[in-house]
Design brief:
single chain, mainly alpha, two-stranded antiparallel ribbon, 12 helices, 66% helix
Length: 242
């Protein structure tokens, strides 16, 4: 992310200059880029970190062979982690819980919020499938006791059970609980917990660095005209509008 550090450096330099915008030509900007030296090994580690965190096991294995970059976790565990994530995304929450416990029982034992959210997702799936009596029984036996111990859990439980009061949940104010996005949210939470248990970052570093780059460019926009990267997918410098 050499461009990010160049932008930060320019911000510091321009702070001391006059209020008028400084114009930085493409030639000047590219020279600054070339002056920043970043090791290929560091870039490879960023790529591997992204592949491991996001669960692209085949790509990670191929990248390991081609670049010689060693992952910081056993790649075999990625397959197990992705199986858990896929189970939640498919609505098979009981299977996901079983797989998590097979991986590491302490994950759910030490994370009551995650366990509650998985149980909440089980309740949502029962409601989705029209199993009203089973849903009420499950809510009363499995979730209500936890709600008594935690106000936040109780609010989530009441909100979920309220789905049963609507014949057409697609138009109710809490219908988003039945959206696929709710499954994805729960799956991401489980994925992050597994990564944390493996002493790995729960979020990949690369997207965060790109966000920092966008922020730095916006900050510098107020003080200078310079070549931008407007499309991160292409990473092409575009001349400043003067």
């Amino acid at each position: 992310m050499s461009l990010f550090w160049i932008v930060i450096r320019e911000l510091a330099e321009i702070e001391a200059m006059a209020a008028s915008k400084k114009v930085i030509t493409r030639e000047e900007w590219e020279k600054k880029l070339n002056d920043v030296k970043i090791r290929k090994e560091d870039m490879n580690k960023l790529v591997m970190n992204f592949l491991v965190t996001e669960g692209y096991v085949e790509a990670a294995e191929k990248f390991q062979m081609e670049s010689g970059t060693e992952p910081d976790i056993d790649l075999a565990t990625i397959t197990d982690r992705m199986a858990v994530k896929k189970a939640v995304q498919s609505g098979n929450v009981e299977d996901a819980i079983e797989k998590v416990n097979d991986l590491n029982p302490e994950i759910l034992d030490t994370n009551p919020q995650l366990f509650f959210h998985l149980q909440q997702q089980r309740l949502i799936e029962l409601i989705r499938n029209g199993k009203v009596e089973e849903a009420l029984e499950f809510a009363q036996e499995e979730l209500a006791p936890r709600g008594e111990e935690n106000q936040s859990f109780l609010e989530d439980l009441e909100r979920t059970v309220a789905l049963l009061a609507f014949e057409d949940v697609s138009n109710c104010p809490i219908g988003e609980l039945l959206d696929i996005s709710q499954r994805l949210k729960t799956a991401s939470e489980v994925n992050a917990a597994i990564l944390t248990s493996q002493s790995h970052e729960k979020d990949p570093k690369l997207p965060s660095l790109l966000k920092m780059l966008i922020w730095a460019q916006k900050e510098l926009d107020e003080k200078a005209a310079y070549p931008h990267i407007n499309d991160l997918s292409k990473a092409v410098l575009e001349d400043p509008a003067i």
